[in-house]
Amino acid sequence: MNICEAADARLLPGFKRQFVTVDGNDTLALTAGSGPPLLMLHGDPQTHLCWHDIAPRLTDRFTVVLTDLRGRGESHKPEPGQTPNPFAKRTMAAEQVAVMHKLGFDSFSLVAHDRGARVARRMALDHPNAIERLCVMDIVPALDFYKNTNAAIAQDYFYFFFLTQPYPQPERLIEGDAEAFQRQILFGLGDKRVPYDEDALAVYLERSTDPASIFSMCECFRAGYGIDRDYDAVDWEANRKITCPTLVLWGDKGVTGRHFDLKKIWDGWCEDAHYAAMPSGHFIPEEAPNEAFDALLPFLTKGTAA
């Protein structure tokens, strides 16, 4: 049993582990529960384990699916040199839709944090018939992020500008002390130390510090600065919006809530947006799992039978 399997056994008991193959690439998926399908996507530099305090409490109402995004955790990791960028959120979104289809779900609700929320937002825009309800945690879309950038944002979110530098410049610098770099992100986006479970943290650090994962993280940010912004600009010009009910959560001690007018931004992208601040920094699923669950459950179950 490797470190990831051991952490799953302790933190997500009852979840079935499997690899789902799409276009020859394997994506790790964990499933548990019964009822309508619910996909939950993690952020950086984490894995599906970020949901360990929330997902088990949803399995009595939903069939919960937790995946590792491409380039993260135990899922496949594209190699340098591929074009177009394999970390375009449109490409990542299509892969997650295909994974859910292979698991037997053509439509589902979607909860996501950080990088996963960027993928989830693109899923809702590109696959509106597949997404029934959407929750995004502590992000603003790429177009809005870079359009509203100022010196204070660049200081607090320095890696949004560092990681986008051409390959392999940031990769080489990070590999000099990869664990220190990932710890800076994991512990540097709030006013208090994040209370990670020690087994989950060990997985995050092991899986995010190998060269393939470092490249994946950088390339994902490069996509955000480049192709993702381009797609956003086209959608904005065409007035394309997310049509499903959308819940926007953010940490009231975090960088995103401090620097951006989230209601104004998300009202511009959504037809039916709802909002709630969490008593946390950026890493809501592990800093404020109870408050997040209390916001999620009534939103996800609205209009369904008790």
Cα-atom radius of gyration: 18 Å
How much of the sequence lies in strands comes to 15-25%
Number of strands: 8
Multimeric organization: single chain
- Largest beta sheet: what is the strand line-up? 1-2-4-3-5-6-7-8
Catalogue the unreliable spans: none
First-to-last CA distance: 39 Å
The helix/strand class is: alpha/beta
What is the molecular shape? Answer: globular
**Strand/helix succession:** HEEEEHEHEHHHHHHHHEHHEHH
* Sheet with the most strands, sense and barrel status: 8 strands, mixed
**Average of pLDDT:** 97
Helical proportion, percent range: 40-55%
Instruction: Count every helix, treating DSSP H or I runs of 4 or more residues as helices.
Output: 15
How would you sum up this structure, described in words?
There is one protein chain. By secondary structure, the chain is of the alpha/beta class. The chain has helices at residues 3-11, 89-102, 115-126, 142-147, 151-156, 159-162, 169-175, 178-187, 198-208, 211-225, 227-237, 255-259, 262-267, 284-287, 289-301; strands at 16-22, 25-33, 37-41, 63-67, 108-113, 131-137, 246-251, 273-278. Strand 5, helix 3 (115-126) and strand 6 form a beta-alpha-beta unit. The model has no long low-confidence stretch (mean pLDDT 97).
